[in-house]
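A further point concerns the way the authors explain their paired sequence and structure data. For illustration, here is how one protein appears when written out as sequence plus structure tokens:
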Amino acid sequence: MVKLIEHAPEGVHLNVLNYLNEHPRGFVLDAPCGQGAISQDLEKMGFKAFLGDIERNNILYRNGRFVQLNLNTFLPFKNQTFDYLICVEGIEHLENPHHLVREFARVLKEGGHLIITTPNVMTIKSRWRFLFYSYLDYFRYFGPIPSYEKHQIHEYDHQHINPLFYEEIKFILTKYGFRIRTILTNRMVKKRICGFSIIKRLILYQTKKKFPDDPNYLSDILLEGEILIIVAQK
């Protein structure tokens, strides 16, 4: 059997699978699905996975339930089809995250779970980088590679075009009928900033005054987690 590549950063798939393993089996839409690695594991766990991606030729896990789709347009599924929706490292590639979440709300059953993962642009490291260099982690360039660039641009290769802050994600999810259940991360980023602890205390102090009712703003996951894994329920 061909070993499928997990294109998401280390630990993302494992956290998603561990979360779903604690819930009843059901129908899952995995979009974008990449080669199908997480769908393959879900089916081994007893879920019935549907794979969706714009790149048909990239799919290596063939279970007869693949649908070619463009997440920027309408999803070709009936209302309330799925028990679970998984969007791993996909929403930051899209032009309109509002449209995607609205469509997810339509095809998800009442009480169903939506799992979205995306690069965390709110880490202390990312904020520090934006302060001095005017770009966020994972979103260095927009548009074609500059002719003078001598090195490979990791962010460009992945076509990240839409950085999403936690507050924006929360707003979009709430607007279309979701409630955030929990926020996870794959791993903590390394502390390589001079005065990291002082900066963190200052951020926590200022944030607590502005968002006293949402502990997620003050969590280590938001300030130090590499990838946000957001679990919401309809």
The longest strand covers residues 108-119. Helices lie at 12-21, 37-44, 97-107, 124-133, 154-157, 166-175, 196-210, 220-224.
